[in-house]
Amino acid sequence: MAERYNYNNCKEICISNGAKDLIKVYKDKKHHIKQRLKEFENIHKSDDENVFSELCFCLLTPQSKAVYCGQAIKELKRSRLLFNGGKRAVRSKLQKVRFPNNKTGYLIGARNIFKHGKRIEIKKILDINDTFRVREWLVKNVKGLGYKEASHFLRNIGLGRNMSILDVHILKNLKRYKVIKEIPRAITKKTYLEIESKMRKFSDSLNIPVEELDLLFWSNQTGFIFK
DNA sequence: TTCAGGAGGCTTT
DNA sequence: AAAGCCCCCTGAA
């Protein structure tokens, strides 16, 4: 009860009154949330370089400020270093991103997978009819991409239906609403899929799509919706 | 000036 | 499974 107010006063309301008011807050933000998701919806239909850039964004975000990651990707695209820059040049644009050395390696590793000749080709691996299998493929083949970030990527290009992006904010909310008892210290594949399944059931019971519940939790914690 | 915190994941033990 | 490592910038105290 002694929780601080955030930008929207949502935290307080949600804690004191449980899931009922989560639905109320949802109604307030529903339009905004749907609008935001709509912006992601068709990204997977844009060109390969754009889709690849989204993947790279998600390789940068762990433990970092998403805004700075966005700036870094924007600059790497503009300069085209993202598509053909060397290690040192790429690294020079990650000044504000956490763990820049590791992440430079992830970016170049991902590029090596998807660059054929002079072209980036990533869209052909996106099986729209089985996005969960695509996620498995990404986790297995793209170094630096775990379940959380693979889900984040698919959501950001409009293929994240029914997927959870289990970051600390979401996990805190899931605990708050007693969907999970505790926040696990390390999330294995097994626990990730279990928690994802529980979140799906919870969202079903509220009649709120998982992707929308994700953004709702996210905005409750941070006060805004980025990506 | 210190110090927590930011949409984790990989490697080693 | 658990601990160790990556390693940057910002804003509050």
TrEMBL record:
Q: Which residues form the signal peptide?
A: none
Q: Which residues form the HhH-GPD domain?
A: 60-222
Q: What UniProt keywords are attached to this protein's entry?
A: DNA damage, DNA repair, Glycosidase, Hydrolase, Lyase, Multifunctional enzyme
SMART domains according to UniProt: ENDO3c
Q: Which InterPro entries match?
A: DNA_glyclase/AP_lyase_Ogg (IPR012092), DNA_glycosylase (IPR011257), HhH-GPD_domain (IPR003265), HhH_base_excis_C (IPR023170)
Q: Which reaction does it catalyse?
A: 2'-deoxyribonucleotide-(2'-deoxyribose 5'-phosphate)-2'-deoxyribonucleotide-DNA = a 3'-end 2'-deoxyribonucleotide-(2,3-dehydro-2,3-deoxyribose 5'-phosphate)-DNA + a 5'-end 5'-phospho-2'-deoxyribonucleoside-DNA + H(+)
Name the SUPFAM superfamilies on file: DNA-glycosylase (SSF48150)
Q: Which domain of life is it from?
A: Bacteria
Which GO terms fall under molecular function for this chain's record?
Answer: class I DNA-(apurinic or apyrimidinic site) endonuclease activity; hydrolase activity, hydrolyzing N-glycosyl compounds
Marked site positions, Important for guanine/8-oxoguanine distinction: K227
Positions annotated as active site in the UniProt record: K148, D167
Task: Please state the Enzyme Commission number of this protein.
Answer: 3.2.2.-, 4.2.99.18
Record GO biological process: base-excision repair
A Pfam family this chain is assigned to: Ogg-HhH
Functional summary from the UniProt entry = Catalyzes the excision of an oxidatively damaged form of guanine (7,8-dihydro-8-oxoguanine = 8-oxoG) from DNA. Also cleaves the DNA backbone at apurinic/apyrimidinic sites (AP sites).
The similarity annotation says:
Belongs to the type-2 OGG1 family.
What is the recorded name of this protein?
8-oxoguanine DNA glycosylase/AP lyase
| Species of provenance | Candidatus Aquitaenariimonas noxiae
